[in-house]
Amino acid sequence: MRLLIISDTHLPKRARDLPRQVWAQVERADAVVHAGDWCVPEALDALEARAARVVGVHGNNDGPELRARLPEVARATLGGVRFAVVHETGQAAGREKRCAERFPDTDVLVFGHSHIPWDTRAETGLRLLNPGSPTDRRRQPHHTYMTAEAADGVLSEVRLHRVDPA
């Protein structure tokens, strides 16, 4: 399975739409994982209309309509890999240990909120991924997103991509 991993799109406040480069990845992906802060329901609608599958959660900037449609924690098995998705995991210090305790039956935890790309492993083997943001880089040098492959219970080809200036 080809995966697109995104978060913190903040539409339409930080951008009117997802970058063309990200939409191209949506078209290629078997599933899109979104770790929250969509900001408007239309962002979810647009992604659901174009993606083969969406696994998403609401974030702290998402209002009542998005909270009614999306869970705080999503779980999905993609290519035999057990994923959990949340928006916020708390401070960076101790994140791996906290998340491994909270998600003991998970292979990969996708999270957002900080807009800071992250790819680490807990002692238990849990992999933690934050794709940054394709539309709101905050203090990061680039807008970013991730792609990955999931097959036979193995996550591979995890790549952080910079969004090319339009």
UniProtKB/TrEMBL annotation:
<keyword id="KW-0479">Metal-binding</keyword>
<dbReference type="InterPro" id="IPR029052">
    <property type="entry name" value="Metallo-depent_PP-like"/>
</dbReference>
<dbReference type="Pfam" id="PF12850">
    <property type="entry name" value="Metallophos_2"/>
</dbReference>
<protein>
    <recommendedName>
        <fullName>Phosphoesterase</fullName>
        <ecNumber>3.1.4.-</ecNumber>
    </recommendedName>
</protein>
<dbReference type="InterPro" id="IPR024654">
    <property type="entry name" value="Calcineurin-like_PHP_lpxH"/>
</dbReference>
<dbReference type="InterPro" id="IPR000979">
    <property type="entry name" value="Phosphodiesterase_MJ0936/Vps29"/>
</dbReference>
<comment type="similarity">
    <text>Belongs to the metallophosphoesterase superfamily. YfcE family.</text>
</comment>
<feature type="domain" description="Calcineurin-like phosphoesterase">
    <location>
        <begin position="1"/>
        <end position="151"/>
    </location>
</feature>
